[in-house]
Fold this protein.
Amino acid sequence: MRAHELRSAWDRFFEARGHTLVPSAGLIPHHPSAPMFTNSGMMPFVPYFLGEEAVPYDPPRAASIQKCVRAGGKHNDLDAIGRST
């Protein structure tokens, strides 16, 4: 399976279950308490989690394939890049 086929299958799976497909946000988040780079798929949803903004999706379910930067710290997985085991 190619990457674009996997992404398409992901989108179809969640869309069929009533989720709103949300485009990937930028790698530099705009929320004042966010880290320097988007480091996880939940970053674009922080204002909704904190109650700062109303959830714009009805029903309130969303799915996305979020670009992110993992460059060290708590979730450092740089040593695993390229490994298959």
Observations:
- Helices lie at 3-15, 46-49.
- The beta strands are 20-21, 62-63.
- The chain has a mean pLDDT of 86.
